[in-house]
Amino acid sequence: MLHSYPKRVYFIMLALTAIVATFPLWGASVFGGQSDFILEKLTLMLILALFAMSLDLLVGIVGLVSLGHALFFGVGAYTLALASPDFSPASLWWMLPLVMVVSAVAALVVGVLVIRTKGIFFIMTTLAFGQMLFYLVSTSPFTGGTDGVFIMFRPSLAVGETTLLNLDDPRTFFYFCLGVLVAGYLFLRWLTRSYYGQVLDGIHDNEHRMQALGYATSGYKLIAFVIAGVMAAIAGMLAAMQYGFANPAQLGWHTSGEVLMMLILGGMGTIFGPILGAFTYEILLFVFEHLTTHWPILMGLTIIVAVLVLPRGIAGLIIAPPGKAELLKTSLLRRLAKGGRKPRTDAHPHQAVMPKGRAES
Amino acid sequence: MNQEPILATHGLTRRFGGLVAVNEVDFDVKPHEIHAILGPNGAGKSTLINLLSGEIPPSAGEVRYRGKPIQGKSVRQIARMGIGRSHQKTNIFPRLNCLQNCQLAARIHMGGVFSSWRSRQQAREVNERALEVLETCQLVHRAYTPAADMSYGEQRQLQIAMVLATAPSLMLLDEPMAGMGREETAQVTELLASLTDRYTLVLIEHDMDSVFRLADRITVMVDGCVLESGSTDQIRRSEKVRDVYLGRHHEEVMA
């Protein structure tokens, strides 16, 4: 089946989740004073993973490459910033629905206009809408221009007078973001395996045939566009809560491009891949920034190599790990280590050619 | 056979620039018949099918389906009215398995995606229908194979299964046996022959044996015009057809 993966995928994802989730327990003893800073970084990675995952619904599942997805990320951030009262925290109980409704309307309006275009035209029209909003918020006085808007108080989650979750506490906010990410993952996993997901697979493979069968494909694509937009806006809202401000950079095309790179790095169309992509991208970024001021060169090279070596991203590496023979073939180092001798042929070359686990995927 | 035709065209014309691909064609299909369209390459057969399924709009003339004009309607609307078609090129969903391909086809004609979500009963019916057409097309053993991993012949059969899954009242098949081996062709011919009591078919096919074996009526097209139309025997006896089409065809075979 298309969206079922070998057991090891779930095992690895659960193990990684456990490592990240227990960070507040072991972080301080490993990283010492740095652990607060790393917790903040991890929170941001969780938020970006949600953002990348929402784009995967469009790019990987439906096959619509959007270069304007940050628009909705920004809509989430600015909705929070502009709707928050100045001298008291907003309640998440109405802030979250508000962000979802505003972003759904925005996605519906943009979607109706762009959904009929295909390929490069879809890329260009989504880019155009993203840039329109970018220039709108960076020149309007009510959005604070290029400075953006500060959020004085993080929204609170309370029932009556009792606070359910104190989101001002970095640890609590970290777990809150982790919870939202897991919920988002389970939602998308359910969606892609539903009857509706099957229609999206059909559109991805052969939209024309879907129409000839009688499907109004634009409607189904529009629904996916709105869902992706709302999820991106939730991520944007969380990011604004984390940073404490909404900024035009959050919705510019740089952000759209970055999240697309996370998606490609992680593996498109897998839903869990973009999570790995977001973490990998941010970790690489962190390392490269510390190595050199010319980090974009290193980043670019890494992405190019990743695309060449891992066409299906990190997720592809887990779904179908290369067999021993394949590694032997490609590993020049090993051949050199053997002193130029021919590598021994595998006992079962035919089995080795087929990467393990492909049959299960 | 004096039944009302299920589909009829009057003066149907399609121009591509200066080329008249389909020229004033009058054509009709009666319920439960197999109406084959023959003609050399470039005769306008596929263009005619595309006009009938709404894939391209006609330049002039009209198409009536069950007495109502359908030109101007979208491919999707015409499909929903019960005209199902297969394409000359293999046109399936490669990453989905055989069963899912047929489920997608069946579901939209059985209440749609979202009612399948609500009602288990309907989801089950879709599943049953998909399995039923796979059985008709002898693909049950391939139900869980991704379409991309099947042989070319099986993919062509899957195409027919998908059209059947939509339970069309009229099927337009554009060269269903194109590129198939002799054995597979015979198999598909048998399959199509078994459908006549339940379905109405318009069939474009180059394989003469299959056409004369299957068709109730044949329309021969040359250069966008109808050269001759009639029963299989009439076409076989027709001098005009022999000269223009069969003659040339046989010469090719001799050469």
Automatic annotation (TrEMBL), chain A:
It is found in: Cell inner membrane. Residues 339-361 are annotated as: Disordered. Pfam families: BPD_transp_2. It comes from Litchfieldella qijiaojingensis. This is Branched-chain amino acid ABC transporter permease. InterPro entries: ABC_transp_permease, LivM-like. The chain crosses the membrane at residues 12-32, 44-72, 92-113, 120-137, 173-191, 212-239, 259-288, 295-320. Coiled coil: none annotated. Keywords: Cell membrane, Membrane, Transmembrane, Transmembrane helix. The keyword Protein biosynthesis does not apply. Its main location: membrane. It is a multi-pass membrane protein.
From TrEMBL, chain B:
The keyword Ribonucleoprotein does not apply. Keywords: ATP-binding, Nucleotide-binding, Transport. The keyword Transmembrane helix does not apply. Coiled coil: none annotated. SUPFAM superfamilies: P-loop containing nucleoside triphosphate hydrolases (SSF52540). Pfam families: ABC_tran. PROSITE patterns: ABC_TRANSPORTER_2 (PS50893). GO terms for molecular function: ATP binding. InterPro entries: AAA+_ATPase, ABC_AA/LPS_Transport, ABC_transporter-like_ATP-bd, P-loop_NTPase. This is ABC transporter ATP-binding protein. It comes from Litchfieldella qijiaojingensis.
